[in-house]
């Protein structure tokens, strides 16, 4: 009788093996005639083509939204959505906001209680020479 190993189901950990960008789609809304969309119109004409070419893994949609302030909406692979209003911003400020949305994970902003998050917690805890019997100096 031969012994066969059980097939292991791999669990994906982002960054281990291949990195998967969390942002999947980004929608840019602007107004043609409103003054608050002046920066967004300049961004779409000048900086957006280079940014879109540098990030082919993100699906971009540019659509007009008359009589409204310009907004950038990002959708993530975990199903969440983040929106940032970019009214009265310059094109380079809008580029910074788009990079912020691209690099975000889509998770809710939470208070960090521990500096390190791990799947496997340490059994022993934090080591220090002053714990236990102590260190004689």
The SS-based structural class is: alpha+beta
Low-confidence stretches: none
Give the overall pLDDT as a whole number: 85
- Considering DSSP H and I runs of 4 or more, what fraction of the residues is helical? 10-25%
Q: Cα-atom Rg, whole angstroms? A: 23 Å
Largest sheet: 4 strands, mixed
Helix and strand sequence: EHHEEEH
What overall form do the CA principal axes indicate? elongated
Termini gap: 63 Å
**What percent of residues are in strands?**
15-25%
Oligomer: single chain
**Number of strand segments:** 4
The main sheet orders its strands as 2-1-3-4
How many individual helices?
A: 3
Protein name: Large ribosomal subunit protein mL43
Pfam family, one: L51_S25_CI-B8
InterPro entries: Ribosomal_mL43, Ribosomal_mL43/mS25/NADH_DH, Thioredoxin-like_sf
Domain Ribosomal protein/NADH dehydrogenase: 32-105
